[in-house]
């Protein structure tokens, strides 16, 4: 038996696998990963040294802790395919928006234990933010194991399921918006004559450092903003233009749209 199995190993699954190995939560020989194609299986075998298969049922049969790391639209098909291998002793962890604990239990066909992760792609660089939602029938020992897993690739927070859609938006979707923000800042620097690579470095480090200030000082983001805005200075002039363009409203609308879409998936 393996310690943990991954059904699917795309961007998010591979980030989790690599982090678990790097932090020595599991050794490669304790992990079994399924892929849709031989090409994907060969890639995981070569990159991580894990055992691989093209058969999802093998993963379900040979592990009791299963991470369902496929796209949301394939969840039902995958669960139907592995139903015969599932038992009430399995702990099934979904990482997709909209697939509730009750939905996972129902589609498993046998009352498996269920939990949900809502991770994000910065897990690839061990700076992820993961929301964890635990089913009622999950033991304390299993909960601690899930915390170790999530902690291997960044920060985590246990939350009630009613907040999972919000977490999926502000944690899972927002990196895309942050990348757009970095790209836009770099474009502005390029317009001022800065070389492109240098512009990306300045913009990305500014975002990284600013985020670290929020997390480590505990100060309100508005207070930190005010500390940068000297009276009559350059920063407050830029803040005025962002407010004029509706940046706050645009971000709120984007995250709200993402959260509502998650509820419908």
SSE layout and pairing:
Layout: E1 4-7, H1 11-22, E2 31-34, H2 38-48, E3 51-53, H3 56-62, E4 65-68, H4 75-82, E5 91-94, H5 101-108, E6 113-118, E7 128-134, H6 140-151, E8 154-158, H7 164-191, H8 196-217, H9 221-228, H10 234-245, H11 247-264
Parallel strand pairs: 1-2, 1-4, 2-3, 4-5, 5-6, 7-8
Antiparallel strand pairs: 6-7
Helix pairs in contact: 7-8, 7-11
Mind explaining what this structure looks like?
- The chain is of the alpha/beta class and 265 residues long.
- It has two domains: 4-159, NAD(P)-binding Rossmann-like Domain (Rossmann fold); 167-264, ProC C-terminal domain-like fold.
- It is built from eleven helices and eight strands.
- An eight-stranded mixed beta sheet has the order 3-2-1-4-5-6-7-8, sandwiched between helices.
- The mean pLDDT is 95.
In short:
It contains eleven helices and eight strands. With 265 residues, it is an alpha/beta fold. The chain has two domains: 4-159, 3-Layer(aba) Sandwich (Rossmann fold), CATH 3.40.50.720; 167-264, Orthogonal Bundle (ProC C-terminal domain-like fold).
């Amino acid at each position: 038996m393996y310690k943990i199995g991954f059904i699917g190993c795309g961007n998010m699954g591979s980030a989790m696998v690599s982090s678990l190995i790097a932090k020595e939560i599991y050794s490669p020989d304790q992990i079994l990963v399924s892929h849709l194609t031989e090409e994907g299986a060969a890639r995981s075998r070569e990159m991580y040294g894990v055992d691989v298969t093209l058969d999802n049922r093998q993963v379900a049969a040979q592990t009791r802790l299963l991470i369902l790391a496929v796209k949301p639209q394939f969840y039902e098909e995958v669960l139907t395919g592995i139903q015969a291998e599932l038992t009430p002793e399995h702990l099934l962890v979904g990482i997709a928006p909209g697939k509730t604990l009750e939905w996972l239990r129902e589609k498993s066909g046998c009352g498996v234990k269920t939990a949900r992760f809502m991770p994000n792609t910065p897990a690839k660089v061990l700076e992820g933010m993961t929301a964890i939602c635990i089913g009622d029938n999950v033991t304390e020992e299993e909960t601690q194991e899930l915390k170790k897993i999530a902690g291997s690739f960044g920060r985590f927070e246990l939350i009630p399921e009613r907040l999972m859609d919000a977490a999926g938006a502000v944690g899972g979707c927002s990196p895309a918006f942050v990348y757009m923000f970095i790209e836009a800042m770099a474009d502005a620097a390029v317009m001022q004559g800065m070389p492109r690579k240098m512009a990306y470095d300045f913009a990305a480090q500014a975002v990284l450092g600013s985020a670290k200030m929020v997390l480590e000082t505990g100060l309100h983001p508005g207070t930190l903003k005010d500390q940068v805005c000297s009276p009559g200075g350059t920063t407050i002039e830029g803040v005025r233009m962002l407010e004029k363009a509706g940046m706050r409203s645009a971000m709120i609308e984007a995250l709200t749209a993402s959260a509502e879409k998650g509820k419908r998936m």
